[in-house]
Amino acid sequence: MSRVRWSADLECGVKVLDLQHQELVAIINAMEDCLDCGEFQLELSKDVMRRLASYIVFHFQTEERLMVGHKVASKHAEAHRREHQAFADFVSKAAGRLEEGRLREQLPALSAYLHKWLLDHVTKTDRQLAKYIL
Ligand SMILES: [Fe+2]
Ligand SMILES: [Fe+2]
Q1: Which domain holds residue 77?
Q2: What domain count does the chain have?
Q3: Which of 47, 53, 58, 132 suits 81 as a labelling partner, its CA being 20 to 30 A distant?
Q4: What is the CATH number of the domain that holds 52?
Q5: How do the pLDDT tens digits run along the chain, 134 residues long?
Q6: What is the pLDDT of residue 101?
Q7: Which ligand gives the minimal distance to the CA of 84?
């Protein structure tokens, strides 16, 4: 999978979310860059996963506060939170495996999954949230 290129197709129109999504794209692109880093690949990918794990806590909190503030229907808010939780669990497990020195062979698949999750979530679920805010 190639690097994600930020474009208007990824915008949801809420400034704070678009800026945070750009940072997530940068982190996920850093993971893609790791794949070309030869023997340093594993160490660099651990750093990237740490950055991702910490940034998604901050980002998901931002969105979840907006859901409360803008009175998003509980059905949508719950489904959105579940997507966040499932992704946070996945990232935390993958980060743990990388720390143990496992997953080296699966790095391309991991990078592709992060890329796909972000594009799907931002263009569907987060865009739905933006409709409540705008
Ligand atoms: Fe979200
Ligand atoms: Fe988001």
Answers
A1: 13-133
A2: 1
A3: 47
A4: 1.20.120.50
A5: 689 999 999 999 999 999 999 999 999 999 999 988 888 888 999 999 999 999 999 999 999 999 999 999 999 999 999 999 999 999 999 999 999 988 888 899 999 999 999 999 999 999 999 999 99
A6: 84
A7: 1
The rounded distance, in Å, linking the Cα atoms of 56 and 54 is 6
How many whole angstroms from 60 Cα to the centroid of ligand 1? 6
How far away, in angstroms, is 71 Cα from ligand 2 center? 17
DSSP string, 30-75: HHHHHTT-GGGHHHHHHHHHHHHHHHHHHHHHHHHHHHHHTT--HH
Separation of CA 40 and ligand 1 centre (Å): 32
Is residue 88 in some structural domain? yes
CA of 113 from ligand 1 middle (Å) equals 16
The predicted pLDDT at position 104 comes to 80
CA of 81 to the centre of ligand 2 (A): 11
Residue 8 within any structural domain of the chain: no
Query: Is 33 inside any structural domain?
Result: yes
Task: Give residue 38 CA to ligand 2 midpoint distance, Å.
Answer: 31
Distance CA 55, CA 47 (A): 12
Does residue 2 form part of some domain?
A: no
